Amino acid sequence: MSLELYNEEEVLRGCQQENRRYQEILYRRFAPKMYGICLSYAGDRPLAQDMLQEAFIKVFRSIKDFRGDGSLEGWVRRIVVRTAIDHLRQRQSLDKLETEEFYSESHTQNEALPNLQMGEMISRINKLPDGARVVFNLFAVEGYTHREIAEELNISEGTSKSQYNRARNLLKGWLGKVD
Amino acid sequence: MKVDKWYKSIVESNTEAPPEAVWEGIQDALDVDLVWGKIETDLNVRKKKPNYARLAVAASIVLAIAFGGVLLYQPWNISSQSQLVESSGHFDAPSSTGLIYPSDDGAEISPQTQGATTPQLAKVSQSTQLDAEAVDVYLQCPSSSVDEQAENVLERIKMHTAGEMPVSAPGKVSTIAIAQLPAEQGGDYDNNTSIRTVYVGLTGHLANTWLLSSKTFAGLQPDDLTNTNITFGSNFGMQLGTAITPVFKIQSDFLWISQNKQQYNEYINGKYVTSALELDYYTLALQGKYSFPTNHTVIFGGYFGLMKTAKQSVEEEIILLDDDYSSYDYGLIVGYEYPIPLGHRLTLTPGLFAKVGLNNVFAGNDYIPFYLNKTQNASINLSLSIAYNIF
Questions:
Q1: Which among B4, B16, B33 is the nearest to A35, CB-wise?
Q2: Which class would CATH give A97-174?
Q3: Cβ distance A84 to A51 under 8 Å?
Q4: If pLDDT is split at 50, 70 and 90, which confidence band does A105 have?
Q5: Domain span(s) for CATH 1.10.10.10 in chain A
Q6: pLDDT digits (tens, 9 = 90+) for B11-67
Q7: A57, A83, A121, A170: which to substitute to probe chain B, counting the most B Cβ within 10 Å?
Q8: Distance from CA of B18 to the nearest CA of A (A)
């Protein structure tokens, strides 16, 4: 199936008509990138796959409501991120966000950053606590401000900042200094 | 910030595809959505249909009753009838014009006056309002006797009926003139109540019945293993009716035998057998009947049936299915009949009509929900009834 043969508008219309062929095209077009996002939040593959599956089910159920305000990819991505957060919230992973402490681990100082791929990085980010990982992802990947993160996760802005800094420092420690 | 950018670039440049199980899981969920969507649609359709059907039956019954009531009481004639009463009550009173009639010893009044009918009086009574001046001019003629005046008025009535001129006359003159009018056709019409006749009778039907279901329709396909047979049932009951105008009757039928059957040849437990499904009802029907001048009559109305029993016979075995079928049915009736008078009071009426049930009579069981085996009663009936005119 050549995904490039179909333009976004056509795929969108097909999905809105619940055409399974177009749903598959949309899924296959966005799945790798969205899977990467899910991995960054989940920290492990089985959970990321659950998140991705649930997110795309939501996408197809609600795609009739998509009015073209912004890109389709951005809309799908928001659903994926929101689903990932909800997933972690259901696991009560975010409840301890205000009080959790990092458990210090031995840092690997000299890893070569440019050569690290997603698969390899998962093992690193999996070591981050769920809350810190979510904050770091929202800030670094999604571009949220700390205020937005605080509202999204129902935490204080200060907590968001501290969690971000801790996550960042840990990553830096594990991956080596790059600043 | 380099960590952030580096991290973001790695996340967004992911090329690792999720396992195929993810897409399969998505498809499964979407399939479930589709199934539920179809079930929900089916249930919604089913919810609405009975409402429309009930409304249609209720509306037809209410319309029939209302139409009959209006024809029975004829509110548009009330004013003229009251005037008529007033006119009749002052039969011997001096005319307002000052004209003095001979004394009322009977000599001046034709015996035919006794036969004057209410509608005729009503017509003239209405006419008397039309032209007071004309009658004044007419009655100024002193040489006219009452009979002569009556003849003259009769001419005027005829001309008025033909639309040529208004007519007006005092009560006594009117009455004599009216008596000379030709009698209305259909002499058994009760002019006091507008009811022409009331009749009771017995009726019987030979019915070609159908239980309209997917099984029945499938059995009509030549390549289907089940074969649907043409099936007959019989209905018997009594009727009560009234003619509320010379051309329109309302009739209710109560059938204490009312059968709906459907016979099949089908495979059951590995054997090719004949099975028959039979639903028996008490049925009450309300019909309107419109007769054309040639006596051809069309019928329309509705019926309500109360289930007596539901059973299925397979070979010699009979299985009661009362719980599988609805306790009631309702629907519409449309048809034709041709009444044949037998003497003065008896009428023999052959006819042909169709009944169509609007209710899904299958109530469901442990194996099949009601909405997956929608079944409606329908029949084509040859009818024969004999009625006796009570009055």
A1: B16
A2: mainly alpha
A3: yes
A4: very low
A5: 97-174
A6: 888 888 899 999 999 999 988 888 887 787 777 665 555 566 677 777 777 777 777
A7: A57
A8: 6
Tokens found for residue B140: 């100024």
Phi, psi of A101 (to 5 degrees): -115, 150
Q: Lowest mean pLDDT: which of B105-114, B172-181, B249-258, B287-296?
A: B105-114
**CA distance linking residue B291 with residue B339, whole number of Å:** 9
Each residue's pLDDT tens digit, B341-375: 988 889 999 999 999 999 999 988 877 888 888 89
Residue B67 sits at φ, ψ, to 5 deg, of -65, -45
- The distance of B369 to chain A (nearest Cα, Å) reads 28
Separation CA B326–CA B233 (nearest Å): 19
Residue bearing the bigger pLDDT, A178 or B250? B250
Interatomic CA distance for residues B169 and B365, integer angstroms: 76
Residue with tokens 């008596």: B179
Give A150→chain B minimum CA distance, Å.
Answer: 19
**Which part of chain A is CATH 1.10.1740.10?**
3-90
Outline where DSSP puts E strands in chain B.
197-212, 227-229, 231-243, 248-268, 271-291, 297-314, 317-320, 328-337, 340-342, 346-357, 376-389
Q: Are B324 and B364 in contact (CB under 8 A)?
A: yes
| Pair of tokens at residue A92 | 């009560």
Distance CA A167, CA A41 (A): 13
Please tell me whether residue B226 adopts helix, strand or coil conformation. coil
Q: Which of A76, A77, A99, A97 is nearest to A88 (CA)?
A: A97
What DSSP assignment string belongs to B203-221? EEEEEEEEEESHHHHHHTS
Which is more confident, B55 or A84?
A: A84
Can you tell me which residue has the tokens 């991705």? A52
Hey, what CATH topology would domain A3-90 get?
Answer: Rna Polymerase Sigma Factor; Chain: A (1.10.1740)
- CB distance A33–B14 less than 8 Å? yes
Distance CA A104, CA A122 (A): 18
- On the question of pLDDT at B174 being above 60, the answer is no
The mean-pLDDT minimum among A65-79, A132-146, B71-85 falls in B71-85
Q: What angle do CA A161, A162, A167 make, to 5 degrees?
A: 100
| pLDDT tens figures, B80-116 | 445 544 444 444 444 444 343 444 444 444 444 444 4
Alpha-carbon distance values, A169 to A111, A133, A173, B10, B331 (Å)? 15, 12, 6, 18, 79
Average pLDDT taken over every residue of chain A: 80
Residues of B in CB contact (< 8 Å) with A are 1-8, 10-19, 21-23, 25-27, 29-30, 33-34
Which of residues A70 and B75 earns the better pLDDT score?
Answer: A70
Can you list the pairs that B151-155 forms with residues at least 24 positions away whose Cβ atoms lie under 8 Å? B151/B177, B151/B180, B153/B177, B154/B180, B154/B181
